[in-house]
Design goal:
CATH class of the largest domain: Alpha Beta
Strand content: 25-35%
Order of helices and strands: EHHHEEEHHEHEEHHEEEHEHE
Distance between the termini: 30 Å
Helix content: 25-40%
CATH superfamily of the largest domain: Gcn5-related N-acetyltransferase (GNAT)
CATH architecture of the largest domain: 3-Layer(aba) Sandwich
Strand order of the largest sheet: 1-2-3-4-5-12-6-11
Number of domains: 2
Number of helices: 10
Length: 316
């Protein structure tokens, strides 16, 4: 059994990205977590896009029969400082062969190298066997990510405020401005500021997203809000319909409470419905109970939950 620290050339090859995607899909089904499930094509493209924009931040472990664990590490700037967010997926083979402790230790050590002096956070579905390993290493639950789903109507009207125009992203023109507004809109978010301009370019280049999946809210020529959607006709939402997500809906603080965020969400929902989605998922932090309550009020039901486990770096 050996560890391979994946570099960009390895993970951007179609064969390796596909192997990682196959493992993640098998892991999700093996665990029966009930989370929404993208298709192999989209998941492999995501792995490749991540490797392009963050080389050296993906690990996978393999044995003679294939992969038994994967890990991605993303350094983020959050409202409280720097954070290394680790998404760790450990398969049953790791557990059966007693490799889980080594996998967790190596993943955390690499996260500390990627983001020195940053808070280490690990994202796990509730009840994952890795939880006990994190507790033994000084981690504690920070907050939950709640996945919520609702059906999409046929008669969605965007109804933006009169002075606001909502339009799609123009490739080669809008990526930097989009990323900048998203960063500012989510500056106090515990999970950080989301996509970079390069992330957007890679996602479009690899076919994960279309320019029309990104929305810009313009008020008198000024970009004041952004949002994006993800549709994957070959994936599955928890209700059995095509995979569809509402993502990254953010408005600059001085322009909030004027209906811009609601208009962006309606634009996202109508776009997904036009592509063939019957339902849409979104993810909200449990630390924002007012948002959980708001989405429940407008028809979203909880369909999955993951926990962010956190600790600060020990003194060297």
């Amino acid at each position: 059994m050996r560890q391979i620290i994946s570099t960009e050339p390895r993970l951007t090859s179609p064969a390796d990205a596909g192997r990682v995607a196959d493992f993640i899909i098998a892991w999700l089904k093996e665990r029966e977590y009930g989370l929404n499930l993208p298709s192999r094509r989209v998941l492999a493209a995501r792995v490749e896009a991540f490797a392009r924009s963050r080389p050296g931040c993906q690990l996978y472990w393999e044995h003679d029969d294939g992969l038994h664990a994967t890990c991605s590490i993303q350094r983020r700037a959050t409202g409280s400082g720097a954070q290394a967010l680790v998404q760790l997926r450990v398969g049953d083979d790791s557990i059966r062969h007693g490799a889980i402790e080594d996998v967790v230790d190596r993943a955390l050590a690499h996260a500390a190298e990627v983001a020195p002096e940053a808070e280490i956070a690990v994202l796990l579905p509730n009840g994952d066997p890795v939880e006990s390993q994190l507790v033994a290493r000084g981690f504690s639950p920070l907050m939950a990510l709640v996945t919520m789903t609702r059906a999409l109507r046929d008669d969605i009207v965007v109804n933006a405020p009169p002075e606001v125009i909502i339009r799609p992203l123009v490739p080669g023109l809008d990526e930097d401005a989009y990323a900048s507004v998203q960063h500012d809109a989510f500056s106090s978010d515990p999970l950080g500021s989301g996509l970079t301009a390069d992330d957007i370019r890679h996602q479009i280049d690899l076919g994960i997203a279309r320019p029309s999946d990104f929305f810009l809210a313009m008020r008198e020529g000024t970009l004041v809000g952004v949002a994006r959607s993800l549709f994957d006709g070959d994936g599955l939402n928890p209700d059995g319909g095509p995979f569809a997500e509402i993502l990254g809906n953010g408005v600059l603080e001085s322009y909030r409470r004027h209906g811009i965020g609601q208009a962006l969400m309606r634009a996202q929902s109508r776009h997904l419905r036009d592509l063939g989605a019957t339902s849409a998922c979104l993810t909200v932090l449990s630390a924002r109970p007012e948002l959980v309550a708001h989405y429940a009020k407008i028809g979203f039901d909880e369909t999955g939950r993951q926990t962010i486990w956190s600790r600060t770096q020990p003194d060297q």
